[in-house]
């Protein structure tokens, strides 16, 4: 009696394992590229945030300076009266 030729055991399983390993490696590489991109984006956002914070500090300082430099209603009324008087005098001179 002849014995059938021996089949290499696990041949197809090795192919599936190789394929699974390739897919897992591809997924890990994709995730790594995503993480690197997210870190770069976060670094850029931190820089933008620092710039915006500096600008906000400048704006707050300017607003503080402007708040102490305003005209009261009485001062405005006096100014408006003078302007109206001068306009009336100018109209009388140049009819």
Question: Would you write up a description of this structure?
Answer:
There is one protein chain. With 95 residues, the chain is an all-alpha fold. It has a domain at 32-93. It contains two helices and no strands. The termini are far apart.
What does the secondary structure layout of this molecule look like, with pairings?
Elements: H1 11-67, H2 73-93
Task: Work out the number of β strands.
Answer: 0
**Structural class label:** mainly alpha
Average predicted confidence as pLDDT = 87
Rg measurement, Å:
40 Å
H/E element sequence: HH
Note the total helix count.
2
Q: What is the percent of helical residues? A: over 70%
Strand content: under 5%
Shape: rod-shaped
The major beta sheet can be summarized as: none
Short key terms for the protein model shown above:
0% strand, 95 residues
Short summary of the structure?
The protein has helices at 11-67, 73-93.
């Amino acid at each position: 009696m002849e014995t059938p030729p021996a089949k290499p055991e696990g041949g197809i399983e090795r192919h599936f394992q190789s394929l699974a390993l390739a897919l897992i490696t591809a997924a890990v590489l994709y995730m790594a590229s995503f993480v690197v991109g997210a870190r770069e984006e976060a670094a850029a956002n931190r820089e933008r945030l620092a710039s915006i914070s500096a600008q906000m500090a400048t704006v707050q300082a300017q607003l503080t300076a402007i708040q102490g430099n305003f005209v009261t209603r009485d001062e405005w009324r006096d100014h408006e009266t003078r302007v109206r008087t001068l306009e009336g005098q100018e109209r009388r001179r140049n009819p």
